[in-house]
Specification:
This protein is of the alpha/beta class. It is globular. The chain is built from 17 helices and 29 strands. The longest helix is centred in the middle third of the chain and has 13 residues. The protein has five domains: 119 residues, 3-Layer(aba) Sandwich (Rossmann fold); 64 residues, no CATH class; 91 residues, Nucleotidyltransferase, domain 5, CATH 3.30.420; 114 residues, 3-Layer(aba) Sandwich (Cobalt-precorrin-4 Transmethylase, domain 1), CATH 3.40.1010.10; 128 residues, Methyltransferase, Cobalt-precorrin-4 Transmethylase, Domain 2 (2-Layer Sandwich). Helix 2 packs across helix 3, helix 12 crosses helix 13 and helix 16 packs parallel to helix 17. The strands form six sheets. A six-stranded mixed sheet has the order 3-2-1-4-5-6, with helices on both faces. It binds S-adenosyl-L-homocysteine (SAH).
Length: 553
């Protein structure tokens, strides 16, 4: 799966065009120069940002002069390796210039963007201009056997040679290739392994499947089998294994090393015919690459992810990837909305905040059917959120065996206490604890006892779920307990909607603090006896807890 593009802008004048392009690629992130423009993410240095994106293989759409992009990327261009598409787009949307990544589909992107902006793309690739397709960049499911040989082949066609197609190349139906029955050049679509003759272009359809019964000797045995049968390794689409091997790590590694999908079958799965076999392994050939990808089913995946407090720039790349790859998203509606933009093909299952266990079971059911499922939490999923609920559902005696075969992963996020602390400085710079004041799932007496002990231990404390309509008195009672251990001048930080548009940070003393200052969107940090306040240059205040503690404290 190719990653979503990054839109990079320098100022507010490019924002409107960037948003129009974003509508085409909903998961594209708009990167704006800090303090110049409010975008999805802020950067400090244009060149560094561009080079970083390029190195990570992210497609780049820069809304600025082509020259700036070229100069910024120049130092990177010498190094070999896969090149992402790079485009320059005029900030008013009047020009779309594909610059790099011809084999990564840059011209295709340029056409898509140009169509959206109602201009024409500045395509300069001669083969593509003439033939309306890039022969060297076949669609997914097909791979070129040899790039260097392919370049010569295309220049022959440009020189006037005619072409014959041998095999199935449905994507070329609309092309303007110089086709002729007796063409002197041939495009071969074949899974067979051989060196291309000078007068042919070889493209392998990924339509082969190798059926395995275990992981022993893989992937070497797969290579031997293909070689023995004269079949191209590039034509291999997937390994097919019995569903009983779903959790087999060696098998998953073998598929990864072969760079193919791993799909699971049961005795009832309908399979295409075997065309070769060797020492217990079979090669099957599907009708087409699409048909090959539809046989059996993949191992399902359940990712429990943390969005962080809200701002896109606090979302980790691992979480971004999981969201991009998700087929189903589950969560409290507010959080699922925070995960936007999502694609139309991604199914949203929104539910009430209280139905955590039910939601976790639903997530397992979807994942056990082979889907890629994401369960969304705000902050960190392991902090008063969905990760524990998911594991509770898995541990239930009624949990079906196939839930245990799901690939379960928990991806961390920036928790509200950490986001609030960072805004204020470092109030959690020494030992601290996190306490939820909600007595929905634990007796109030336990909360009181924990507050009492944390107070006695002089820990800084972060309160989650401090108050709500259904729990109006608990915070007042909690503060009474805190008062028995702390002086009224103890520093308190209140973070409300941190990382969101309505963000508000307040620093008060324990003596000033009243429950009316707090609501359910607030995170409360009660400092330890050592927590201090410090004037900021801009008139505000820093709060921090020193790293050392008095010896006789
Ligand atoms: N998993 C979340 C916490 C869920 S509990 C996390 O790790 O952050 C919900 C509580 O978290 C809220 O009642 C509030 O106290 C706190 N909270 C969550 N997001 C917040 C934000 N953006 N700003 C301040 N507090 C927040």
């Amino acid at each position: 799966m190719t990653s979503s593009p990054a839109l990079v802008i320098l100022g507010p004048s490019a924002l409107a065009t960037a948003r129009r392009i974003q509508a085409l690629y909903p998961q594209a992130v708009i990167h704006g120069l800090r303090d110049r423009v409010e975008a999805d993410a802020a950067y400090d240095d244009f060149g560094d940002t561009l080079r970083g994106l390029y190195r990570s293989g992210t497609p780049i759409i820069a809304l600025c002069a082509a020259g700036i992009v070229i100069r910024s990327l120049a130092p990177q261009l010498a190094s070999k390796g896969a090149e992402p598409p790079v485009l320059a787009v005029a900030e008013d949307g009047s020009a779309v210039v594909p610059l790099l990544g011809g084999l990564g589909g840059v011209n295709r992107m340029a056409r898509e963007i140009a169509m959206r902006l109602q201009v024409s793309a500045a395509i300069t690739t001669s083969g593509e201009l003439r033939f309306g397709t890039c022969l060297l960049d076949p669609p997914s499911g097909y791979v070129l056997a040899d790039l260097e040989q392919g370049k010569r082949f295309v220049s022959d066609l440009l020189g006037g040679e005619n072409l014959r197609i041998d095999g199935d190349a449905p994507w070329l139906d609309q092309s303007k290739l110089p086709l002729a029955e007796d063409g002197r050049r041939t495009l071969h679509i074949t899974p067979l392994q051989r060196a291309a003759r000078p007068d042919e272009l070889l493209i392998h359809p990924r339509s082969l499947l190798v059926r395995v019964e275990g992981s022993e000797g893989l992937p070497a045995r797969v290579h031997q089998l293909l070689e023995h049968s004269g079949l191209a390794a590039k034509a291999l689409a997937a390994l097919l294994a019995p569903a009983t091997l779903m959790t087999d790590k060696a098998l998953a590694n073998a598929a990864r090393e072969l760079n193919v999908a791993l799909r699971f079958i049961t005795p009832y799965t309908t399979l295409p015919a075997a065309i070769a076999q060797l020492d217990g392994l079979q090669v099957l050939q599907a009708q087409s690459p699409d048909a090959a990808q539809a046989i059996g089913r993949p191992r399902g995946r359940l990712s429990v992810i943390g969005l962080g407090p809200g701002a896109a720039e606090h979302l980790t790349p691992a979480v971004r990837r999981a969201l991009d790859e998700a087929q189903d998203l589950l969560g409290y509606e507010t959080y699922v909305r925070m995960a936007e933009p999502l694609r139309d093909d991604q199914v949203r299952h929104c539910s009430d905040n209280r139905e955590e266990l039910q939601r976790a079971r639903h997530a397992f059911e979807l994942a056990a059917s082979g889907r890629r499922v994401v369960v969304v939490s705000s902050g960190d999923p392991g902090v008063f959120a969905m990760a524990a609920a998911v594991l509770e559902a898995l541990e239930e005696s009624a949990a079906p065996a196939d839930w245990h075969a799901v690939e379960l992963q928990v991806l961390p996020g920036v928790s509200a206490a950490l986001a609030t602390a960072a805004k204020a400085g470092a109030p959690l710079g020494h030992d601290f604890c996190l306490i939820s004041l909600s007595d929905n799932l634990k007796p109030w007496a336990v909360i009181e006892s924990r507050l009492d002990h944390a107070g006695a231990a002089d820990l800084a404390m972060a309160f989650y779920n401090p108050i709500s309509k259904a729990r109006p008195w608990q915070l007042g009672r909690a503060l009474e307990i805190v008062h028995t251990h702390r002086t009224p001048d103890t520093v308190v930080v209140l973070g409300r909607d941190i990382g969101r548009p309505a963000e508000a940070l307040r620093v008060v003393s324990l003596g000033e603090l009243t429950p009316e200052m707090v609501d359910m969107r607030t995170l409360v940090i009660i400092g330890s006896s050592q927590t201090r306040r410090l004037p900021r240059g801009d008139g505000g205040e820093w709060v921090y807890t020193p790293r050392s503690y008095p010896q006789n404290g």
